[in-house]
Write a structure and sequence with these properties.
Blueprint: E1 3-8, H1 13-22, E2 31-38, E3 41-48, H2 51-58, E4 67-73, E5 88-89, E6 95-103, H3 106-115, H4 127-142, H5 148-156, E7 162-170, E8 176-181, E9 186-189, E10 194-197, E11 209-212, E12 218-221, E13 226-229, E14 240-242, H6 258-264, H7 266-276, H8 286-291, E15 298-302, H9 304-321, E16 325-329, H10 330-333, E17 344-349, H11 355-366, E18 370-375, H12 381-385, E19 388-391, H13 404-423, H14 428-449, H15 453-462, E20 467-472, H16 477-491, E21 494-499, E22 517-520, H17 527-539, E23 544-549, H18 554-558, E24 562-565, H19 574-591
Parallel strand pairs: 15-16, 15-17, 17-18, 18-19, 20-21, 20-22, 22-23, 23-24
Antiparallel strand pairs: 1-4, 1-10, 2-3, 2-4, 5-6, 6-7, 7-8, 8-12, 9-10, 9-11, 11-14, 12-13
Helix pairs in contact: 3-4, 4-5, 7-13, 7-14, 9-13, 9-16, 13-14, 14-19, 15-19, 16-19
The structure holds 5-amino-5-deoxy-1-O-phosphono-D-mannitol.
């Protein structure tokens, strides 16, 4: 989605906002722009495509100033073009504004503004806001009202419907104004300089102290200080968070792609996440401990990869605790009419900002459920709205394709399952065995990571396919689903996942020597059934790749393309098996020359419905 950066300091604003903008590239964008309060007035430059194009445009221009804003746009209203790119100026070009989100009532506002003589240059929903601000700002300034821009923006907020993070700059004001409603906006506190951004990654280089704005809050920020007010105009005491990610964590560190780096970091991220869920670092709250023995059901919600992690969690928690676990896409949950109340909802979101997941969680709370959020981002919106938060400790994930956060989410769900089992007075021996096995998972993953050559070879032949099926059974059905998602989003090869037993109920009709099938096998109670299904595939002469445990000789009866992961408890196999599939997707996409970290049409954090 779109990215925002704002800077007020003493440095070269142009250089700083462009540098910071590059750290938001991972969110996905189609155009970019800057507005700097320069010694020659407010200077706005925009361009379509890569930030490099914007850099080329500003090269040679003398834009000197210490306050500025910048934006990467991901088109929603109007095609990717220079006029539609942000920042948007007002009629006099003395105010400029950037926006993430959607102004839902923009059509009505635009009509009214046009009738009052405003000149519109773009097709965007955003532009109405800057004209609304100008209608208030100039009269306030003329009257000599202090902080006229800050006041004007706050007067506009009640007129807007939808979701927005806005940052505004004006030629005659030496500060920025930022406001948030259902779209994240973070203040970075520097020394002699302050920042605004849509997430923390562009700020890591400058500061580790951040303040997350809440819905309805508006901030005035100059180089020395910042002030936040709520909807009613009351000053808000800022909650300052320390971000423990280092700027290096958000760099490629010698890898060709963030995705490859993040796949390779998984032994560490899984270890950190495991430790975060053990001993003194984690105890089930007294409220949950009381709730669990009587818990009739749990529901897991999330989108995309987070949903897939939830599916692994469903199989794990249900079989261990015998508590029925439902699973629902967040975008579906919010509009559903469940017949029964679900007492406990687990909402999973790597970013903690996904609009569908947040809306679903709000709906769950409205229905009276207790909510647990699982997220990777400290201070993100989901953490402020859920009753409890469990963190994956994966470090920043920059590649659009979720990898290390997926396996970390499974680790958190598995560990949560153990704690629920404990609260239900489950067998301590089984508990100890499973916890010991989970502690060993990072080692299993490390072994997969040390043997990438064979995966690379197999990916070469898969990269030529037009359609690939992924199959698995039981707890490795979600592994297959996530494998298919990874492949399709970064390689653009059509991929579909099925529970292996379902093939004969329809999809077999599509199999031929041109449609490879990737099967995931663990040493569990459905292994033989899975191999029967693989036999059905071979009978249709479809090429088969089997992801199986080391030492599983049966796999070789069906194919020479066997990719292995170390032997482990079957209920934990989705983690190492998924790492194999992540690498398979990565190398297939690389073979096809795809833009792996920034797949077309996709964004890292989907903050609109
Ligand atoms: O930040 P979230 O976990 O809420 O994001 C949910 C999905 O948008 C996300 O998992 C998406 O499916 C990934 N790009 C897949 O790799």
């Amino acid at each position: 989605m779109c990215g925002i950066v704002g800077y007020a300091g003493i440095g070269d604003a142009l250089k700083i906002v462009i540098e910071a903008l590059k750290r938001l590239e991972y969110r996905g964008y189609d155009s970019a722009g800057i507005a700097i309060r320069s010694d020659r007035g407010l200077k706005i430059v925009k361009s379509v495509g890569e930030i490099g194009n914007l850099e080329n445009r500003v090269r040679g221009m003398s834009i000197k100033g210490a306050t500025g804003i910048a934006h990467t746009r991901w088109a929603t209203h109007g095609i990717p073009s220079e006029v539609n790119a942000h920042p948007h100026p007002d009629c006099r070009k003395k105010i400029a504004l950037v926006h993430n989100g959607i102004i839902e009532n923009y059509r009505t506002l635009r009509k009214e503004l046009l009738s009052r003589g405003h000149e519109f240059r773009s097709e965007t929903d955003t532009e109405v806001v800057v004209h609304l601000v100008e209608e208030r700002y100039y009269p306030l300034r003329k009257k000599g009202i202090e902080d006229a821009l800050f006041v004007a923006v706050r007067e506009v907020i009640p007129l807007l419907e939808g979701s927005y993070a806005l940052v505004v700059v004006a030629e005659d004001e030496d500060y920025l104004v930022g406001v948030r409603e259902k779209s994240p906006l973070v203040i970075g506190i520097g020394s002699g300089e302050n920042f605004l951004a849509s997430d923390v990654s562009p700020l890591l280089k400058y500061t580790s102290e951040v303040v997350y704005l809440d819905d309805g809050e508006c901030a005035r920020l100059d180089r020395k200080s910042f002030r936040i007010v709520d909807k009613e105009g009351n000053t808000v005491q800022p909650g300052i968070h320390q971000v423990d990610w280092s700027p290096k964590d958000a760099e490629k560190g010698g890898y060709e792609h963030f995705m490859l780096k993040e796949i390779n970091e998984q032994a560490g991220s899984l270890h950190d996440t495991f430790v975060g869920m053990t001993g003194e670092n984690f105890t089930l709250s007294p409220m949950l401990k009381t709730l669990v023995p009587y818990l009739k059901s749990i529901e897991i919600i999330g989108c995309g990869t987070s949903y897939n992690a939830g599916m692994v969690g469903k199989y794990f928690i249900e079989s261990l605790t015998r508590i029925p676990v439902g699973l629902c896409y967040a975008s579906e949950y919010r509009y559903s009419s469940p017949a029964e109340h679900t007492p406990l909802i687990i909402a999973i979101s790597q970013s903690g900002e996904t609009a569908d997941t947040l809306a679903a969680m709000r709906e769950a709370r409205r229905r009276g459920s207790v909510t647990i959020a699982i997220t990777n981002v400290v201070g993100s919106t989901i953490t402020r709205e859920a009753d409890f938060t469990l963190y994956t400790r994966a470090g920043p994930e920059i590649g659009v394709a979720a990898t290390k956060t997926f396996t970390a989410q499974i680790m958190v769900l598995d560990m949560l399952g153990l704690r629920l089992f404990e609260a239900k007075k489950g067998d301590p021996a089984q508990l100890g065995r499973l916890e010991g096995s989970l502690r060993g998972v990072p080692r299993l993953v490390q072994k997969v990571l040390e043997n990438q050559e064979r995966i690379k070879e197999v990916s070469r032949f898969l990269s030529k396919a037009h359609t690939i099926f992924f199959i698995g059974r039981n707890i490795n059905y979600p592994t297959a689903v996530e494998g298919a998602l990874k492949l399709k989003e970064i390689s653009y090869i059509h991929a579909e996942a099925y529970p292996a037993g379902e093939l004969k109920h329809g999809p077999l009709a599509l199999l031929s020597p041109e449609t490879p099938v990737v099967a995931v096998a663990a040493s569990d109670h459905v292994r033989e059934k899975l191999y029967s299904n693989v036999g059905e595939v071979c009978a249709r002469e479809a090429p088969v790749v089997i992801v199986a445990e080391e030492g599983d000789e049966t796999a070789w009866n069906y194919t020479d393309d066997v990719l292995t992961f170390p032997a482990c408890s079957p209920e934990l196999s989705p983690i190492p098996a998924s790492v194999v599939l992540q690498l398979l997707a990565y190398y297939a996409a690389k073979e096809r020359g795809c833009a792996i970290d920034k797949p077309r049409n996709l964004a890292k954090s989907v903050t609109v419905e």
